[in-house]
Amino acid sequence: MHATRKLWTWLAVICALSFAVLGWVGTEIYLTAPPIPKQVVSDEGTVVFSDGQVPLGQEAWLSAGGQQLGSVWGHGSYVAPDWSADWLHRESLALLDVWAQKEGQTSFEQLKPGHQAELKARLKLEMRRNTYEASTNVITLSADRAKAVQQVAQHYIALFGNDPSLEKLREQYAMNRGTLPEFKDLHALPAFFFWSAWSAATDRPGAVDLSYTSNWPHEPMVDNTPTAGAGIWSVASIILMIAAIAGMIFYHSISKEEGDPVPPKTDPLFDLKPTPSMRATRKYFYVVIGLILAQVGMGVITAHYAVEGHSFFGFPLADILPFTVSRTIHTQFAVLWIATAWLATGLYIAPAISGHEPKFQKLGVNLLFYALLCIVVGSTAFGWLGSLQHKGNEFSFWIGNQGLEFTSMGRVWQILLFVGLLFWVTLLGRGLLPALKKPSESRGLIAMVFLAAMCIGGFYATSLTWGPHTHYSMIEYWRWWLVHLWVEGFFEVFATAVIALLFTRLGLIHAATANSAIILETIVFLFGGILGTLHHLYFTGTPTFVIAIGAMFSALEVVPLTLIGVEAFRNYQRSKAAPWVQAYKWSILCFIAVGFWNTVGAGLLGFSINTPIALYYMQGLNMTAAHGHAALFGVYGMLGIGLLLFCLRGLSDRALWSDKLLQAMFWLLNAGLAMMVFMSLVPAGIYQAVASITKGMWFARSPEVIHSQFMETLVWLRVPGDIVFSMGVVCLAVFALRLLIGKKRVQTSATDMSYAKVPNKA
Predict the structure, then answer these.
(1) Cα–Cα dist 530/488, whole Å
(2) Which residues cross the membrane (predicted)?
(3) 415 burial via Cβ count (<10 Å: 0-12, 13-18, 19+)
């Protein structure tokens, strides 16, 4: 008990210090973020962009799809360009042409090589010189650069408008015509794109060759190349990671682990009778399966848009389901179904652990279910409606699609979801309270489950921290609090504690051992994970020390994954501990798959892009998608399915259980995911990385690369993996449907028998 108390103390200290540092970093980002000018003017007095156009342009881009329609500073989708990189390259070319035309040539390409070299050197000086005046809040451009900016602005006005000459380019970008129908939005959009590119190339005050985004994106024309810090901290992070892994292996080798207990002769949960609230969670799991089916369908459509742009095998699907909507649903449903599976698991196990059914608990579980269903349906429907009918900025922010990846639902739905999560924590706490009060070996595990649940409910409040006019750097800061800390942090702690609790209830792990192990694992995970959040913020207008902190702590995130194979092997042994354990075989194998994908998806593919020097060249390319698919579904998705199967086991007639369908489901899902990642996404990411390194980020995201024969072939190579994966999802759906139909048949048969026993008084 004393050792466990010390571990709890260490956990509290580490969390307090880590969040203090993360909060301080946020303050520094707020103070040093790229300034938003009141005006952009030429040195001749011409107004290029007027007061308020930069923030209005940001709102317009987000309402048009935002991070589902290309990216800014590398965060977003991959078919359309990164607009900051695209603007920077187009403006550089336009300025060179302006200078060439002043010297009597029609374009820069017609100049002699020596003269071209002279103008390129002049371009670097022009683009990197910071002409922002803080006292007036104005950026002043030379007359020539102002002319180039206005030319580029016209391109984006035509692209996001209705210009028929750009229809082919829109198709390549998977954009619909008339993306921004409002005049003021359409003309403000270039101001935001200009500002994002200006921040990416202009030197910070008092610095030389160091932009607000630490020289991201790579653009050789303006000397946007990696900083020395990006290289140094990458090397340092790798050294730290190797040393930490060695230390963990050494600690593991000298630690004497207590062996697993002798398993009970029979299933301890065989006679568990589900309470009314436990039975009420069944519908959650069927909604989970429905969301998986919808997510996979939207993923297929979204991937296909990378080839046809507007159509699905010739059918003009984009007229009713644009790329921005299909990708929003695909990413949003991924988080929603995983979260729903974990929330339902918590509600299911609470009465089972405490042996107590609180009053009105079933009513609360049902109310929460219909509230969550309303949020899912409402946010999806209004997001689709707002995008299709161009309802505008206010509609998009409040009840439509905010345009932010993984947290796209409108603010009203976010508030309702936050309230729903707090209600879930209340229901969970009511169910666990008797077990928390009663001294037992499992109380530490139960406390960890409840604390993680409180963090899940509380930390969703970070989705409410930004407003429609918040600085883009701060939006990204708070968004990654939600995506990284909420999804990748506290949900993982919650699920890991739940799994340990389930194993102890089955008698496969000593409760005392599990207590210490979970706290220690949480310490190791959060020590790197909390400040590791900053590896998402290297190039989003943050101070340079963010690169140092993010690189070092994100490297530590990999450390606990190195021994994940040991835990997976132990779980495999537990699956064979006794004949009755086979009843939970596929749940346990899902937990083993989590270990595999943690190593491959989160570990290998994650660390391949997490160092500053790697992410500098690969941010916003398909290597990010490869890591995202392998980690999100492979780790969190398989974890959710494993928990779903465990709960359905206790809620279903065991005679209706089909191991054959689950076997097919398990292998098809994992094989399909592996095919998708390694036959398509990884090769595409490597191909784009080469383009980024050699010519610049603009080129890696250009139609010339995205729609090259090689890249489109790789998109088609997703089809075999998608088919195999989809077959696995269908097997899961058929399995669940079989349980549902079989249950109804059993109930019908029982009712018929009861009628047959009643004598006919007629």
Answers:
(1) 10
(2) 230-251, 284-307, 334-353, 365-385, 412-433, 445-466, 478-504, 516-539, 545-566, 586-609, 629-652, 664-687, 723-741
(3) middle
pLDDT at 658: 87
pLDDT at 579: 87
- Which three-class secondary structure string do you get for 178-232? CCCCCHHHHHHHHHHHHHHHHHHHCECCCCCCCECCCCCCCEHHHCECCCHHHHH
* β-strand partners of 132: 139
Mean pLDDT of all residues in 112-116 = 93
- Residues 6 or more apart whose CB falls under 8 angstroms from that of 692 comprise 218, 617, 618, 621, 699, 700
> What mean pLDDT comes out for the span 260-277?
85
pLDDT of residue 760: 45
CB-based contact 590:642 (threshold 8 Å):
yes
- pTM tops 0.70: yes
What span, in angstroms and rounded, lies between the C-alpha atoms of 541 and 200? 8
Contact 649, 705 (CB under 8 A): no
The identity of residue 707, as a single letter, is: H
Cα separation, 547 vs 232, in Å, equals 10
Please give the pLDDT value at position 756: 47
Give, as one character, the DSSP assignment of residue 571.
Answer: H
Q: Which of 305-314, 437-446, 450-459, 618-627 has the lowest mean pLDDT?
A: 437-446
Share of the chain above pLDDT 70, in %: 96
User: How confident is the model at residue 749, as a pLDDT?
Assistant: 53
What is the distance, to the nearest Å, from the Cα of residue 279 to the centroid of all Cα atoms in its chain? 31
Q: What are 206-213's contacts with CB under 8 Å, separation 24+?
A: 209/128, 210/544, 211/128, 212/33, 212/34, 212/541, 213/34, 213/73, 213/84, 213/539, 213/540, 213/541
AA letter at 384? W
**Of the candidates 620, 626, 584, which has an alpha carbon nearest to the alpha carbon of residue 605?**
626
CA 163 to chain CA centroid, Å, is: 34
Cis check: omega of the bond before 217, within 30 degrees of 0: yes
Angle, CA 363 vertex, CA 357 and CA 368 arms, to 5°: 110
DSSP-derived letter for residue 406 is T
